Amino acid sequence: MTVKADYARNFVWAGELTSSELERAAAGIVERNYAKGSYICHRDDKFDYWTGVVSGLIKLSTIGLTGKATTYAGVGRGGWFGEGSVLKGEARKYDIVALRDTRLAMMNRATFVWLHENSIGFNHYLLRQLNERLGQFIAMVEHDRILDAKARVARNLSWLFNPVLYPGTAQTIEITQDELALLAGVSRAVTNRSLQELQAEGLIVVEQGAVSVRDIATLTRYGD
DNA sequence: TCATTAAATTGTT
DNA sequence: AACAATTTAATGA
Predict the structure, then answer these.
(1) DSSP assignments along A128-144, one per residue
(2) Nucleotides of chain B within 7 Å of a protein C-beta?
(3) Would you tell me how many other CB atoms lie within 10 Å of the CB of residue A44?
(4) A195: left (phi over 0), alpha (psi -120 to 50) or beta
(5) I want to staple A75 with a disulfide (CB 3.0 to 4.6 A). Which of A2, A79, A88, A203 is the partner?
(6) Strand C nucleotides where any atom sits below 7 Å of a protein CB
(7) Which domains does chain A have, with CATH numbers?
(8) Does the nearest atom of strand C lie within 7 Å of A134's Cβ?
(9) Helix, strand, coil shares of chain A as percentages rounded to 5?
(10) What pLDDT, in 10s, does the model give residues A116-164?
């Protein structure tokens, strides 16, 4: 199979590009593997790539002066991030950490800017992504102070299921409770209990090494 | 294909 | 953090 077809199958935005645009995009992408637990980029690093998750799982987070970690978002297979930093040419404002062995696709800045300036389909995707992410951040700011552990778990789960950002994602995502605990910033025990309660409420179905979502809408607004 | 073992994950304290 | 129970993966007969 060609690299082009590979991207078209795995990445939503690739499906919105013309054939020649996709060819140009593929030429500007390199892939790289990261081991579980390793840092892909530290805060304030210059990391001039628009980055997608080919396989694995990562989180975007910062560690405050008190040592408490705040996760901004988890990104699973098919998710892309960093458009803000690339567009503005800024250093990253967060750490990027691989929660499990992860393969990333990294598009260089020149290619990203070219797509932004030339591809209508690409901009449609970008706009959707920015809008959706804005909604997530607003919800996070709005509720951060009162979110209990269960709501944090629910919210982090909903990120990974977002049907707008990851339309290809099935109803089931492969994530262990251990990984979800790292994302939500709570203990594994609390994650386990939260998942059982969410399951009892009919929002999800807990499986071995995976979670199925039955009610994404309620899950996203959990804690409201 | 089945049985055994190792490793991973879950549920509980 | 530690422990037991359960599930999955890997191996080889």
Answers:
(1) HHHHHHHHHHHHHHHHT
(2) 8-13
(3) 12
(4) alpha
(5) A79
(6) 1-2, 7-8
(7) 3-132 (2.60.120.10), 146-220 (1.10.10.10)
(8) no
(9) 45, 25, 30
(10) 999 999 999 999 999 999 988 888 777 666 678 999 999 999 999 888 8
- Shortest-distance nucleotide from A207 CA to C1': B10
Q: pLDDT at residue A46 above 80?
A: yes
pLDDT in tens, A29-39: 999 999 999 99
Spatial separation of the C-alpha atoms in residues A25 and A46, rounded to whole Å:
21
Find the helix or strand (DSSP H, E) in which A30 lies.
strand A29-34
Pair of tokens at residue A68: 């408490």
Task: Assign A204 to helix, strand or coil.
Answer: strand
Query: Strands A204-207 and A102-108, how do they pair?
Result: unpaired
Identify whether the C-beta of residue A80 lies closer than 8 Å to the C-beta of residue A166: no
**pLDDT for residue A31:** 95
